[in-house]
Design goal:
mainly beta; four-stranded antiparallel β-sheet; three-stranded antiparallel β-sheet; globular
Length: 103
């Protein structure tokens, strides 16, 4: 997200934002119904996209750390999402799934 903040996916169906200076979790983002398997952040740090065992992608607005929220849930994979890339400048996210598809 920035030089002092990172985001991680978790088996408890959440994403966590970590402060590297204070060495603590500053936010927990919930919404997936399965383990979060991957997460990508746009180059400017304003948007993250997460993929999950629940076969969905979630697009997170990271601009306001005190009001981080899921903006969209994207569906379409028949099996779990394994990887994701986010390109905010082009307005796209690309995901790969165990179902052998890219979306």
């Amino acid at each position: 997200i920035s030089a002092t903040r990172v985001i991680s996916g978790s088996p408890d169906c959440t994403l966590k934002i970590w402060d590297l200076e204070r060495l603590c979790c500053t936010a927990t983002l919930g919404g997936h119904r399965g383990e979060v398997t991957c997460v990508a952040v746009a180059l400017d740090g304003s948007v993250a996209v997460s993929g999950s065992v629940d076969r969905t992608l979630k697009v997170w607005d990271l601009k306001d750390e005190n009001n981080t929220r899921c903006r969209w849930t994207l569906e379409g994979h028949a099996e779990e999402v394994l990887c994701v890339a986010a390109i905010k400048e082009l307005g796209i996210a690309v995901s790969g799934s165990r179902d052998s598809t890219l979306r």
